[in-house]
Amino acid sequence: MKHWQKERNYRKHENEDGTLTHIITVDDQEVEVSAEVFEAYSQADRRERYQAERDDGRLLSLERLAEDEMQLSHLTDKHIESAEDLAIQEMMIKQLLNAANLLSSEEQTLIRALFIENMSEREYAQVIGLSQKGVNKRKHKALQKVYEFWYSTPPVFRDGQ
Fold first, then answer.
1. What is the pLDDT of residue 159?
2. Which of 45, 87, 90, 153 has the most CB atoms within 10 Å of its CB?
3. Average of per-residue pLDDT values in the chain
4. Cα separations (Å) of 18 from 21, 22, 33?
5. Is this structure's pTM higher than 0.70?
6. Given phi > 0 = left and psi -120 to 50 = alpha, else beta, which region is 28?
């Protein structure tokens, strides 16, 4: 703890008759205040010192953010995407939907079950009455169609480029 008592701008003074005088220094002038005001002021000071000690070394400044190469948006709970990122993401989703439309209804159902409903290949195989190996083979065939479509399109629609 630092020598806060020497640096504080409030103090109690014991009078000759044993009573206490509560003094706060404001603009280099000592002002006598009531015990209630003194108590509230000293509590606020203690709270401020506690906060400073607790946050010591963790204080944020724009200069420190720049030094750490951190963007201000990373300090919020929600990361705010740029308009460009949102537009690219929307184009990629459209492209993926176009690729999904190339699949047969059975392939779409398979992909939905495995990747959206999180079914295992074994579970899905039991549902449709096929072996797990058969489901795996169909999954790879469907994903190959999506892959080929995806990489046959202009690169602006893929990988965020």
1. 46
2. 45
3. 78
4. 10, 13, 17
5. no
6. left
